[in-house]
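User: Please fill in residues for this 486-position structure.
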């Protein structure tokens, strides 16, 4: 095994930690994690808004190699998830490898020396044989450009930049956006605010979460009988993965699922005018399906209004829409999602011939298996282009990618570089298959770029991705002379 490669990992979130732990387990110690924040945890460190949590079951949204038998509930909240990742980092002695407050500005490949130069904000430079991006797809908040937005004088912040000192008690509060973050925060803020105004641009399909606490007995059983916890995890995995059948356009399963959700919202919301606002016209799954047990109830409170007229402008203390008087509010919470089209930005990644990744991706981002880009030797991405899911755990995908990267690092190649033709064939296949998914239906979503191309999502079930990434096909690599040592 090659264990003398000097490896840079960018990001100490879930995927960076997963990579680091597996390197350690493989006996490779020569790696540094560059983390822009002063803490680890990535998205689970940054998203501290009230009721933040994960709508993937915790037994599945956790590392396969580090089961946690005592998850407090089926869908855990942010604090418990962050604690879990901290525990993993400590247990596997990853923390000494993390360089905090270190924002990578540039990584540039040298064809002469065959290595990468990394430049941090502030000017520090270092050389590495391998660079692994673990920055994910959801790390840069998107703030909409609304006329007058910068003149607003009340409290205003994005859900991913929650102001811990903000007290919603008794205030008139606007929440802009109604995606996955909003459905979690709306019931919480509605409880405390004097009045909540939810600005919705387009409705989402919402399914019941059915969250429940785990009993002490169940936790003890899982701790004493690890096989039980493992079987439960696999059962959750296959239940989630089987849902992919409903993500293909025109399939009976898609129709049945949409119909079921439609009946669910009709049972939850009786008032016709509100139902009209909340009932989507596109098939379920086109936008991410949201899960909540209390969102619809919150929207039917007397002190909650849902505003569907487009926002025109914001003034010092109010929000104006097309048809109504300006609405004075004490605070604006932007639940407006993330910048997901410019993957890996604002890092500048420069490959062979001085070509930057941004130039290479000018038409659309793409990477072979979401991991490798031609012209960028010994450079890997975790949770890269077309690896997001709408139906299963992203941790599973990241573990597949980490396994694949380890195969590449073990191989007797001086460089790991996918061939341009293999990458192009892969992109063609993706395009063909994504055309047939429900994400192509008529809805706006962060899965698509400005041209409507799906750049974020994987095109099949997660189990297929596992099979595709199990071992590298060396014939798809440049100068392929290597082999894997397992
Ligand atoms: P999001 O799903 O992208 O939702 C953003 C919302 O903001 C949408 O409702 C969007 O409306 C609205 N919006 C954007 N610009 C607007 C404007 N100018 N005026 C009015 N509305 C505007 O973002 P998110 O809720 O932060 O979630 C992003 C992703 O993070 C999720 O899809 C998920 O992958 C992840 N996440 C996961 C969990 C979890 O439980 N696992 C929880 C939170 C987040 P349109 O729909 O009309 O564009």
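Assistant: Residues filled in for all 486 positions:
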């Amino acid at each position: 095994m090659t264990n003398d490669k000097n490896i840079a990992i960018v990001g100490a979130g879930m995927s960076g930690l997963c990579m680091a732990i597996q390197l350690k387990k493989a006996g490779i110690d020569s790696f540094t994690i560059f983390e822009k924040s002063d803490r680890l945890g990535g998205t689970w460190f940054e998203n501290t808004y009230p009721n933040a949590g994960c709508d993937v079951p915790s037994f599945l949204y956790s590392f396969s190699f580090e089961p946690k038998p005592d998850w407090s509930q089926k869908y855990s909240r942010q604090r418990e998830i962050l604690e879990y990742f901290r525990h993993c980092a400590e247990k596997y002695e990853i923390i000494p490898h993390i360089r905090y407050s270190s924002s990578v500005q540039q990584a540039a490949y040298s064809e002469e020396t065959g290595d990468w130069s990394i430049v941090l904000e502030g000017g520090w430079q270092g050389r590495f044989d391998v660079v692994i991006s673990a920055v994910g797809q959801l790390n840069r908040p998107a703030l909409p450009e609304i006329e007058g937005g910068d003149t607003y004088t009340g409290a205003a912040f994005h859900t991913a930049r929650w102001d811990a000192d903000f007290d919603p008690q008794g205030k008139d509060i606007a929440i802009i956006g109604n995606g996955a973050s909003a459905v979690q925060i709306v019931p919480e803020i509605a409880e405390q605010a004097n009045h909540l105004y939810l600005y919705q641009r387009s409705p989402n399909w919402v399914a019941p979460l059915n969250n429940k606490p785990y009993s002490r007995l169940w936790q003890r059983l899982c701790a004493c009988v690890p096989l039980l916890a493992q079987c439960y995890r696999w059962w959750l995995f296959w239940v989630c993965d089987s849902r992919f059948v409903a993500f293909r356009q025109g399939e009976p399963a898609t129709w049945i699922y949409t119909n079921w959700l439609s009946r669910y919202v009709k049972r939850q919301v009786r008032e016709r005018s509100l139902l009209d606002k909340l009932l989507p016209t596109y098939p379920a799954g086109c936008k991410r399906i949201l899960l909540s047990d209390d969102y619809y109830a919150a929207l039917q409170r007397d002190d909650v209004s849902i505003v569907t007229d487009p926002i025109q402008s914001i003034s010092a203390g109010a929000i104006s829409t097309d048809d109504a008087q300006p609405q004075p509010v004490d605070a604006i919470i932007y639940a407006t999602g993330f910048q997901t089209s410019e993957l890996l930005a604002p890092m500048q990644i420069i490959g062979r011939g001085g070509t930057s990744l941004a130039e290479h991706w000018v038409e659309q981002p793409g990477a072979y298996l979401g991991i490798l880009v031609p012209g960028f030797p010994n450079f890997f991405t975790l949770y890269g282009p077309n690896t997001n899911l709408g139906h299963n755990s992203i941790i599973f995908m990241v573990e597949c990618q980490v396994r694949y990267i380890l195969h590449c690092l073990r191989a007797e190649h001086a460089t790991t570089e996918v061939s341009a033709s293999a990458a192009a064939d892969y992109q063609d296949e993706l395009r063909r298959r994504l055309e047939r998914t429900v994400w192509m239906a008529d809805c706006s979503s962060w899965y698509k770029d400005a041209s409507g191309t799906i750049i974020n999502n994987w095109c099949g079930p997660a189990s297929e991705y596992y099979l595709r990434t199990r071992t590298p096909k060396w014939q798809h690599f440049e100068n392929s002379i290597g082999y894997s040592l397992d």
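For context: The CA atoms of residues 133 and 381 lie 5 Å apart.
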